Amino acid sequence: MAAPEKFMVGLLQMSASSDPDKNLQRAIDKIHQAAARGAQVVCLPELFQTQYFCQREDSALFDLAEPVPGPTTDKLSVLARQLRIVLIASVFERRAAGVYHNTAVVFDADGTLRGRYRKMHIPDDPLYYEKFYFTPGDLGFQAFDTAAGRVGTLVCWDQWYPEGARLTALQGAHVLFYPTAIGWHPAEKAECGEAQHDAWRTIQRAHAIANGVYVAVVNRVGHETGDIRGNAAPGAGLEFWGCSFLCDPFGRVIAEASHDQEETLLGEVDLRALEEVRRNWPFLRDRRIDSYAPITNRMID
Hints:
Layout: E1 6-13, H1 20-36, E2 41-43, H2 71-83, E3 86-96, E4 99-107, E5 113-118, E6 124-125, E7 128-129, E8 143-145, E9 150-153, H3 162-169, E10 175-179, E11 183-184, H4 186-211, E12 214-218, E13 221-224, E14 238-241, E15 245-247, E16 253-256, E17 263-270, H5 271-280
């Protein structure tokens, strides 16, 4: 069956408590609500089932990881099938003892695990100590055919890299989904907060424009100290800035959430509009692929 020319995207901007089971149930409830409002593709924030635990290095937190398939993804698969939606979720994947990934899973409307994407770019910054937890992805950049259309997903830190967006778009993705957990260090917010958020929003709108695709970004909200099962991290924590959004292939923002409230954001993807933008701004056509080999160098000295 051919994919529809239009479909509705639902982005679930959420906060997280210290209880993973409660977070999962709240996500399930919100997925039901999004589907009831017409969402055909629903995306959750990065690592939605827990508070953002990478604010410190603690080997006991590897216990939060699950295999894929596993208990959480089994529940999400059933939910996608019941609601007849495409569902994108970010999970902490246990691949083997000592090998863990930050993984986005894509379930089709029949519940099939259509594919997984393992986060490729892994940050190591103050309160974002992800290199301690996550092995860099080894599946490459991918796009997946679903009942709604061809979609690609990357994860958070990937959103700053044009190469990932380009390679996903070149595989025919109509929408790039970015499950995200990004926020302000409270001590920096007054001085740098506005500029940091603007840069984040701008780079992702640029991916939409440069590749002629829709871009869907779903972030979390709330102040967190990485409190997992009552064990808080030291320090001031992070204030996640929300502002999930969907933009069209010319970078126009179709829908955008607030900085500090949980919201279910809905927006339409129109593949005819994508076609129209690409006909008038044929950036993919005019690429000089014969001249780009040096891009694989770390630096060109």
